[in-house]
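Case study.
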Amino acid sequence: MKKDFINLDQVSLSFERQQVLQDVNLTLEQGVSYALIGKSGSGKTTILNLIAGFLKPDKGTVSINGVKVLKPRKETAFLFQELGLFPWQTVEEAVAMPLQLSGRKQEIDSGVETLLRKLGLEKHRNKYPQELSGGEQQRVALARTLISEPDIILMDEPTSALDATTKEELQSLIREEQQKRQATLLFVTHDVEEAVILGQNILILKENGTISQLENPYYFTEQAREQLGFYEECIKLRQLIKVENNI
Amino acid sequence: MKESLQSTQSVIGRNIKKLAKGQLAGFISFLILWEVFHLLLNTHTVPSPMETIVYLVTVPEKVLIHCCASLLRVLAAIGVSLFIGVPLGILIGVNETCKNLLSPLLYFIYPMPKIAFLPIFMLLFGLGNTSKIILMIWIIIFQIVLSVRDGVDQISPVYFKVMSSYCATAGQRFKFLILPAILPQIFSGLRISIGITLASLFFAENYAAAYGIGYYILSAWSKMNYVEMFGGILAIGLMGILLFNLLDGLEYLCAPWQKGKGKRYPAN
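After joint prediction, the assembly is written out as follows.
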């Protein structure tokens, strides 16, 4: 029995008089991965920002493990859509930064080494982000996200800018690392295939702020992409999204 | 680490050679143009470049003393301007209240002819080096403050979000984000400032000075010794080449990620 970990209770938020979220309720369990899908502008990224502590709700509460989120917490890691890799940091420096910032300097050498090897970045350790390909940059950002061993991983369209092969490679890595660390993963995506590959649960955010939650039968299937059932599930999910959004 | 240092040294060495070749060609072209002007105008007020160079070579210690005096004043002015201008620019860049309060003041003072304040500085700080250096600081500090402020403004909001997500303190934000992000702007502000400071030597050293290249040029002008005057002008140009090259090298060392853009030191 997994325990409830992240809780959004009657959360409302508006920007410049425009209501973005209204009375959103959501409960996420510890160690489970969730794909959050929905139309553009429906407030998916806002939900990530609320859980990360970058935004405060106008109404309602966001809590993690029973503690109200008032500011960013060290145990929550965020993989930004824009990646946010600093041009002046080499791969090694970028990956080590979260440990440096949290004063865990003695863990830097072994932690960085392990992750660089795991993500195939050893030969790029002294390169700057602008010298790397899109996929390599994404892997550096992922390594930076994982090094602090977070209990919550938030990702905003983690593979949106990648080609199909690199995308599959990175999705496998994310899936593997999330399972190994038993972290709660919540990621926003527009890609139904990605939602089925990475999300144990699929959350559909509707324009009225309600969220439908579906269990994903294909999450634990190895080599899911090679099975016809996987694509049937994607088609079903696509149809469901249309119905949920009244298209 | 050792390998990386050796590779940086070899890249610098290669680039210095390349740079020296390019700059020598530029300098020779400039001398040819000068010679053409000298021949066309055919007046003693524009001496030939050869005559000027020969003069400079025959009295090198005399010019060198004046150059050193000016260089010390320029470096002091730049040092103080950086010491005050960089923190002030950062403060204006990161703090909205400071930005609202100080930006209009900066815009108001920035276009003013700073030389007009010379009598006030002479009155307040006397006729010695202090008033000369303060005049130069007054001329360049706004350039540095504005460059730094713009540098902070241009930092992507995502970078600040990254730092927040790791619960970085203000000090960590400065060390890991703000300082490296504004380094290229500091260097570009410095480049402009060096040009302006060298040009302003002529005004700053035209009173109560016994040494300084500005004084040297003015003194030659009043004696109508145009060869000596052009010698002084040439010396200022050479000081410029020296300072700009030093700055380029320093930028390459302090902001090596810039080399990837192939700006001045393309990666080989």
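Observations recorded in class. The beta strands of chain A are 4-15, 18-29, 33-38, 59-64, 67-68, 76-79, 152-156, 184-188, 201-205, 211-215. The CA atoms of residues 160 and 191 of chain A lie 8 Å apart. We will return to this complex in the next lecture.
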